[in-house]
Amino acid sequence: xxxxxxxxxxxxxxxxxxxxxxxxxxxxxxxxxxxxxxxxxxxxxxxxxxxxxxxxxxxxxxxxxxxx
Length: 68
Description:
There is one protein chain. By secondary structure, the protein is an alpha+beta fold. Strands 1-2 form a two-stranded antiparallel sheet. A two-stranded antiparallel sheet has the order 3-4. The protein has helices at 2-8, 51-59, and strands at 11-16, 22-27, 32-37, 43-48. The model has no long low-confidence stretch (mean pLDDT 81). A hairpin with a 5-residue loop joins strand 3 (32-37) and strand 4. Helices cover 24% and strands 35% of the residues.
């Protein structure tokens, strides 16, 4: 969870450079690809933009489950 939180938290640092240039340094990602294994050996993947999105995806029943 700590890694997902770090990866989905985007920060910006703006500094004024000599000569009127503005430097914007961005850290983090907009979206992160997460995956969960299926019982048949395949993997379901989804691109998420938050920890909540990752938890919701990872909490779902895998598609290859006999319950579907």
